[in-house]
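User: Please predict the structure of the protein below. I'd like the answer in structure-token form so I can feed it into my own downstream comparison script.

Assistant: Understood. Taking the following sequence of 291 residues as input:
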Amino acid sequence: MSACGTRAVSVIAFIGSVFSPWYKWSGRRDPENHVCINVATYGPGGRFTMTDRGRAALRQSADTFEVGPSKLHWDGGRLVIDIDEISGPPVISRVRGRITVTPHAVTDVEMPLTADGAHIWRPFAPSADISVDLEADGWEWDGHGYFDANFGTRALEADFKFWTWGRYPRSDGAICFYDAIRRDGSELEAAIAFDGTGAARVVEAPPRTRFKRSLWQVKRETRADPGVVPRQVLGMLDAPFYSRSSVTTQVDGEVVTGVHEALDLDRFASPLIKPMLAVRVPRRAGWTFPS
């Protein structure tokens, strides 16, 4: 998020692009043949890129993750993200530049999302500074952000019906909420607070509170003190099964604004969704790295 709250970026690096229809249609047997660095910018002139690439486009080392023309690279204590992608409809154009993420601290926390550990959440840096420098008017700014990861050995829709996630910076660190309804009827209700050093502790969450549905009518809820109704302050990604937005809520008396996500996996599992996604997620199997 930009310091002024009017712009934001998200970058997701995939091995096994879980939201790609091409990966689903392939049978999800070869994750390294479906890799992607998904970049989305939100605010004036916002664009969306998500190209499903083949194994020829994947190159990894101890400190670099590279997919075709874009890469993530650890440079000392900074994560440097170099982007060179083409956005999808409705605005088709080049998205190029650099995003630098500087964690305040890196945690050693992992949290299983299912009892058998088939899905793991790894919050590497719950608080970070970011610097955005993209080749577009108004897209040079500084702000705050986070860096996390999810790992899984089964499809999300195989184990979950619905989930919401939120990360909210606070005066003393950040707090994350993970709520999910699993396929077996059990529920995940997790609230993790991180201090400025990255130390984590499980805390009691305020009540789960509904707020206005997304444009695609995806149900949304997050945690809020009793009597407080969360509200969207910046719309980001709105899809038939998924919502990402900047949301203001109140936690333990403190008003906080962070990124919220809601994912309806019953909708995502529908075969009708996949052809719609293919319009936004092109497949580019071949790639040759410059020598």
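That's the full token string. The mean pLDDT is 96.
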